[in-house]
Write a structure and sequence with these properties.
Blueprint lengths: L2 E6 L9 H5 L1 E10 L4 E2 L3 H10 L5 E6 L6 H15 L5 E5 L11 H15 L8 E2 L2 H4 L10 E4 L9 H8 L15 E8 L2 E6 L3 H7 L5 H5 L33 H10 L9 H9 L39
Parallel strand pairs: 1-2, 2-4, 4-5, 5-6, 6-7, 7-8
Antiparallel strand pairs: 1-9, 2-3, 8-9
Length: about 325
């Protein structure tokens, strides 16, 4: 099965239709360009639009300048994506000459993508590399990150799925090049603009980039801090590594119910209940768990409250 992804930028206007969105497995959008040179003002609103239409798997891309500091670019890119789309699963580099920039070499693409993966703490397979073969040629054999190739053929217009099925197809020679090619951008004139093909399902795509499926994600611990939601109730008198307080642990059914009700503030009735959660806390503590946020136990172990205090202390097991 072939699936489809579109990527947008400030040059796209309007909105996807529901029927267009229903055929997409992901939505990527330009976020940044250069070393603090340009931040796309439509990144968040367009990602939110796609998410509202059910395209939950999103990501950003950055235009890399080979003549500017790669680490600075990578960190600014990741920070901008995380601030506006915290659930982003794809961090893509856009590597090509635009006239205003110096395109990076393949070695610089590798260095930039590695800096992105390291700083974002995501699998390297989530750091995609858009590198047109017309510019890089055989040098792409040295690319160490998933390649997004562009080959538009005659670049016909029409519905994106029909354009692929009628003019490209899974056996097209466009799928061949000097490096493995998991993604093919096959047109820019489709009804969604830039259209990309991936030969697999959404589950295959998430597995490929090393990200959990939605079902797996629903069973992950839910970590928040007051920075995530100012209504989070802060417990007094409890201790944790580096001053962190984080409780967790829901069955899948209870977790889904908790998410559906959007309940993010909990008070445990006893210090013992808090201690029991700490006993099975993951080590090391997850990055971003924050300071002072208590997050859910089993339904019998907590009640919802936005005020009050909890005395005593609980120290997690090492």
């Amino acid at each position: 099965m072939t699936s489809y992804i579109t990527d947008w930028s400030n040059h796209n206007s309007g909105s996807l239709s529901q029927s267009q969105a229903d055929g997409l497995i992901a939505f990527w959008h330009k976020c940044t360009d250069g070393d603090h040179w340009y931040a796309d003002p439509y990144f968040k609103s367009h990602v939110d639009m796609a998410r509202g239409l059910g395209v939950d798997t999103n990501g950003g891309y950055h235009v890399v300048w080979g003549n500017k500091d790669l680490t600075s670019q990578a960190r600014w890119f990741v920070d901008r994506v995380r601030a506006q789309a915290p659930d982003a699963k794809v961090f893509m580099s856009d590597n090509e000459p635009f006239g205003y920039n110096v395109a990076p070499t393949v070695a610089q693409v590798n260095a930039f993508n590695q800096a992105v993966a390291d700083y974002a703490q995501v699998p390297a397979a989530s750091a995609l590399a858009y590198c047109p073969q017309w510019y890089y040629g055989s040098a792409l054999s040295g690319l160490r990150f998933p390649w997004v190739q562009s080959n538009y053929g005659s670049n016909p217009s029409g519905p994106y799925a029909s354009v692929y099925q009628n003019t490209v197809g899974d056996q097209s020679s466009r799928w061949h090049g000097p490096a493995p090619m998991p993604f093919l951008q096959y047109g820019s004139n489709t009804d969604v603009g830039d259209a990309n093909a991936f030969r697999g399902t959404l589950a295959d795509f998430l597995a490929f980039i090393g990200q959990p499926s939605q079902e797996e994600e629903d069973m992950l611990p839910y970590f928040l801090s007051a920075a995530d939601n100012p209504s989070i109730y802060l417990v007094t008198g409890a201790t944790a590594p580096s001053g962190k307080i984080a409780a967790f642990g829901l069955s899948q059914d209870n977790w889904n119910a908790h998410k559906a009700l959007n309940l993010k503030s909990v008070v445990l009735p006893t210090t013992a209940a808090l201690g029991a959660m700490y006993d099975t806390a993951p080590q090391p503590w997850p990055a971003g768990s924050g300071d002072g946020g208590i997050i859910v136990g089993s339904p019998a172990a907590y009640s919802i409250s936005l005020s009050g205090s909890l005395s005593g202390s609980a120290t997690p097991q090492s």
